[in-house]
Amino acid sequence: MRMLSPLSTGISTAAGVVAGLGLIAGGYSYASLWPSSQIFGRVLIAPPRAGELALTFDDGPNPAWTPRLLDILAQNNVRATFFMVGAFAQSEPALARRVADAGHLIGNHAWSHPNLARTTSARIRVELSRTSDLLAQITGQTIHFFRPPYGARRPAALRIARRLSLTPVTWNAMTSDWVDPSSEHIAAELIKKIDRNHRRGFASNIVLHDGRHSELNANRGPSVTAAGLLLAHYKSTHRFVTLDAWA
Fold first, then answer.
1. Is the CB of residue 187 less than 8 Å from the CB of residue 174?
2. Are residues 14 and 62 in the same domain?
3. How far apart are CA 156 and CA 9, in angstroms?
């Protein structure tokens, strides 16, 4: 029988450790970032209600584009869910109030849009509680829903959210609308995912962005136009809801 040298044994052991660490890292990444993962705790995605669509918008309010989006939604008599960044709502309280007064549901998207999978528990608590308190004060709504920035979460983040009476929310229909310059392409990619969810018997929790977490007046023309395209495509065949219909 061939005997392995100490060097070979050491290399094999190191390789095994590296492979094991890679699996652990991959598993953590899946649990913390994949929208459908429930490993770190339950999140609201979408129920088995084919034919229902929830339009959700992240990273606002944005004075450059949120008003135009509100006009499009009003023209189609559709209510949506807006996950607002606390710092932007503080800068634009009248706009945040206008969104709520139009009948839309307001959600918590943290104060400064950090990655909560890498954020201390103390800061997570401040990010969420400060945002909920401000949004409630501005809009008159009690805030019940929370979308972690980037979808990133860890067990502590979900526990803190629930202690603040916030339901964590991810999604099952999203594309890279924040970098895609083509509203037609954004809409086409979302339609593929929505139709796939429908074939599987599920509603669609759709993410678009009316703002950008790193700047207040970001150009969100393609995303807002894509929202209008989705409304035109589905308004006669699907029912648009806000997330509280699924709570």
1. no
2. no
3. 39
Distances (CA, A) of 144 to 74, 131, 162, 185: 23, 12, 9, 32
Question: Is 240 within the bounds of a domain?
Answer: yes
User: How many separate helices (H) and strands (E) can be counted in the chain?
Assistant: 8, 8
* CA separation for the pair 172, 144 (Å, rounded): 20
What is the rounded distance in angstroms from the CA atom of residue 102 to the CA atom of residue 9? 68
Considering the domain boundaries, does residue 39 fall inside one?
no
Q: How far apart are CA 5 and CA 19, in angstroms?
A: 21
In the chain, what's the furthest Cα-to-Cα distance? 80
- N- to C-terminal Cα separation, the chain: 64
Confidence at 35, pLDDT banded by 50, 70, 90: confident
Domain count of the fold of the chain: 2
Q: Which of residues 20 and 225 earns the better pLDDT score?
A: 225
Answer yes or no: are the C-beta atoms of 88 and 61 closer than 8 Å.
yes
Residues 136, 172 within the same domain = yes
| Residues 59, 134 share a domain | yes
pTM of the model: 0.88
Q: Tell me the one-letter amino acid at 29.
A: S
Question: What residue numbers bound the domain in which 25 lies?
Answer: 1-33
Please say if 213 is a catalytic residue. yes
- Residue 180 catalytic? no
Who wins on pLDDT, 14 or 157? 157
Cβ–Cβ contacts within 10 Å for residue 199, how many?
9
Query: Mapping DSSP to helix (H, G, I), strand (E, B) and coil, where does residue 48 land?
Result: coil
Catalytic residue among 210, 213, 238, 244: 213
Indicate which residue of 58, 59, 177, 210 is catalytic. 58
